[in-house]
Structures are given as structure tokens and as C-alpha cells.
Sequence to fold (173 residues):
Amino acid sequence: MAKKNRRKRTALRESKQLWLVSEWSQMPDTKMVRSAFVFAFHNDRLVMVRVNGTRYTLPGGRREACDKSIRAIVKREFTEEALGAVGSIRPLGYARVETISGKFHFLVYTLARVKSLDDFIASDESDARFEVPVDGSDPLLAELVGGEDTTSWKKACHRALLKEANKRRRATA
Fold:
């Protein structure tokens, strides 16, 4: 008998939209995952990276042929972009993205604590690393979550996921 994919849903209202953030007992099939990202916390600060000198984002990226699991994607991408290592990786949520032709893939978001950070050296993966307080006092956080920008589904999704990540992080502290 196949194991059921059980989930706990949390409803979050953000920018006059209702988002369902799910905690899944199983993540989507790795073959269907296009990209994976991590809300990684180091000393209660969110680790973010800058890509191409302009874009501030979560460490993460596309699945490569060597990646056999979502956790492998997240570990590899965090090492490449943030020059560090994360501990246990927990599912946070995912977005199912469907094309006009009906094909779909997943963008997966995870939660982890940082085990270690090496001295940062800029590379073609990222040119800067930041540890951002999540209390809203740092303008870099607005780059990720977009303040009250209601035009970007991705920033609204990040706002909802950040709220949930903070709640879960505090619950396990």
C-alpha cells in the first residue's frame, strides 16, 4: 500500500490574498522539481545572497543531473552560493507552476539552520552574502518579499513562506 502524502495547511492572508502554505509529509518527486530554495537561518538571521550584482535572493537554484533528492539540490546550492553548510532540511512549501501548454513543474522551498559559513569569496554563483534580521529593519528583506508589492506572486509567496518559516523556526528553538 502506498504511503499517503499527508499535509497540514496553514492559511495566511497577505496583500489581500489568501495563501495556503502546506507542510507535506513527502515532497514532490525530485524529477518534477525545477528549482529548490532554502530559508536558512544563522543566529536568527536569514541568509541571503546577491546574484549578478543586482538580485537579492534566497540561496537555491535549478536541479542538476547529479541531484538525487531535493535535499541534495538545497545542500549543493547553499554550498555554491552561500559558501556554507546547512543542517537538517525540512520541507516548507512549494509552488506548482503550470505552462500554457499544460506542462508543470515545482519550485520547492525548504527550511534549515546553518551549520557553518566559510569566509565568503565572490564567484559566478553569487557575488555577496548577507545575514538579514527578519524583523523588517533591513531593506534587503524588502528585495525578497517586496513590501506591499501586490504585483509579484513570487514576492507574495515569499512573504507568506517567511512568516511560516519564522513560526516553525521559533517553535523548534
